[in-house]
Write a structure and sequence with these properties.
single chain, 19 helices, elongated
């Protein structure tokens, strides 16, 4: 059985993790959890990119060795992933021997095949992006710390694969998503594609993987880092694992690294003779107001601070609900609180309170036995039966906010159903109406259970609490059938985990 393989990019360790890195990783985790509920054999990879000039400079500024610097920052990433409840299967570091040894082998293979050559370069170099840029790119002013450079380096024959890559993109519409990003890449490839400089002389950069065919040079950080997607899963040392896992189902990245993943990486794979990943999905940026979050603007949001104040599941929910994949989205505390109060406190939390308090108070804290279903009951149950498949389809199409919204719509229908049926009134009447109240509460508890299970990948902690409150933890998380809560099942104690945030 082949694995469902998804990755985040490797995060660069010249600075601490921020909201953007947290978002990509949460997104991967949510997708991973959804696919696990569909009984897929998921392999979820993340990790850190630890070589390059910016790391060397950051370490020098702190007057420590680069390895000491990256070891410290890796702890920060792992600490955050733990607090975010990221359930990854592997965390790879580019300083690990299992990676660096394979990078050297690939470099040597490409050099022996004539895919890498030495030449003199004279042109513009962006220190911030750690790559050579064209004169036009320099003039456009998008790159920082640009300087003119003349030096000998090794080049990968990337231009050789330009037409082949264009053809592949056009013949495989799922390869680059969303559509706008695919068009960006095709626009980039409509211009002459230069060969890729894949080395840096040790005279200016010592922190990197040494070229196996010339010890005066180290590998360009992007050529090194991109290979993690195959080195982590057994390329050249665990053939069975590699065969079961590659190609990746999803590379999840931010749009700022689209070119490296959608041009550099595929051409490297074509040169090695490996299939290309099934989908590269580039999401948008998180904005602070109208501006991209950046260190230079001083508007970076630390996810750890948000977790400590509002809880991890609340943050996970907001990020997944608010960003339509492919588009930019805005993060402000006011927007966060508004979304939390509207969706979690009012819709989800209110429903949890209504159902559990009513059953505790009037049915001895046990799931009541339903009577006959009327037209209103059957209409709601029919709607609930269709919701899970619609949600799953949205997740498969990476429409996470749409899947969440469909779950919320079901919640709102249950809340409306309770208002119409008003079981708190009928419970005080004769036995027939009491039976109707029991039916209402049974259906409400059962459908609330379905909503909770559908949101479990997004909010694994709070939903577990709610399932315990409903006494339905014995039901498989991926079983969305109706009538699964057991009559007489005792509810657990607790209050809704979504108290309203007061402004």
């Amino acid at each position: 059985m082949s694995k469902f393989y998804l990755t985040t990019p490797l995060y660069y360790v010249n600075d601490k993790p921020h909201l953007g890195t947290a978002y990509t990783t949460i997104l991967a985790d949510v997708i991973s959890r959804y696919y696990k509920t569909m009984n897929e054999d998921v392999f979820f990879l993340t990790g850190t990119d630890e070589h390059g000039q910016k790391v060397q400079e950051a370490a020098a500024k702190r007057q420590i060795e680069p390895k000491v610097h990256v070891d410290e920052y890796v702890i920060e990433f792992k600490k955050l992933w733990e607090k975010l409840h990221i359930d990854y299967d592997d965390f790879i570091r580019t300083t690990e021997k299992r990676h660096s040894d394979k990078v050297k082998k690939i470099l040597q293979q490409l050099f022996d095949d004539g895919e890498i050559y030495k030449d003199k370069y004279e042109g513009m170099y962006s220190v911030s992006e750690e790559r050579f840029i064209t004169q036009k790119e320099a003039e456009e002013g998008e790159f920082r710390q640009v300087k003119k450079l003349v030096e000998e380096n090794y080049f990968f024959k990337m231009s050789k694969y330009q037409s082949k890559l264009i053809k592949y993109i056009k013949n495989n519409p799922e390869f680059i998503q969303p559509e706008g990003r695919k068009n960006e890449v095709l626009g980039f490839l409509n211009k002459p594609l230069n060969d890729l400089c894949i080395s840096r002389p040790k005279s200016r950069l010592k922190w990197g993987i040494e070229l196996p065919f010339d010890n005066n040079y180290v590998t360009y950080v992007w050529f090194d880092a991109l290979l993690n997607y195959i080195t982590a899963i057994g390329w050249d040392h665990n053939e069975e694992s590699f065969r079961e896992t590659w190609p990746a189902n999803y590379h999840l990245i931010g749009k700022d690294i689209l070119t490296t993943h959608a041009v550099y990486w595929p051409t490297m794979l074509l040169a090695i003779g490996l299939p290309l990943p099934k989908t590269i999905f580039a999401h948008g940026w998180w904005l602070s107001g109208d501006s991209k979050m950046s260190k230079s603007l001083g508007n970076i949001i630390n996810p750890l601070n948000l977790i400590d104040k509002y809880g991890v599941d609340s943050l996970r929910y907001f990020l997944m609900k608010e960003m339509v994949l492919g588009k930019d989205s805005t993060f402000t505390i006011d927007l966060f609180i508004e979304r939390y109060n509207s969706d979690l406190a009012n819709d989800f939390g209110n429903l949890v309170n209504r159902v559990t308090i009513m059953i505790h108070k009037h049915f001895n804290s046990r799931i009541p036995e339903p009577g006959n279903y009327n037209e209103i009951d059957l209409e709601l149950i029919g709607f609930a039966k269709t919701t899970p498949q619609l949600v799953i389809k949205d997740i498969e199409n990476l429409k996470i906010p749409d899947g969440i919204e469909k779950t919320l719509i079901l919640m709102r229908k249950i809340n409306k159903y309770l208002e119409v049926k008003s079981p708190w009134k009928s419970i005080k009447s004769d036995s027939s109406q009491r039976s109707e109240a029991a039916t209402t509460m049974y259906i409400s508890a059962d459908l609330l259970r379905i909503c909770t299970q559908l949101l479990n990948p997004v909010m694994p902690n709070k939903t577990t609490v709610i399932l315990k409150m409903l006494g339905s933890t014995s039901i498989q998380i991926n079983n969305y059938s109706t009538n699964l809560v057991k009559v007489g099942q005792k509810l657990g104690n607790g209050k809704s985990p979504f108290p309203r945030i007061l402004i």
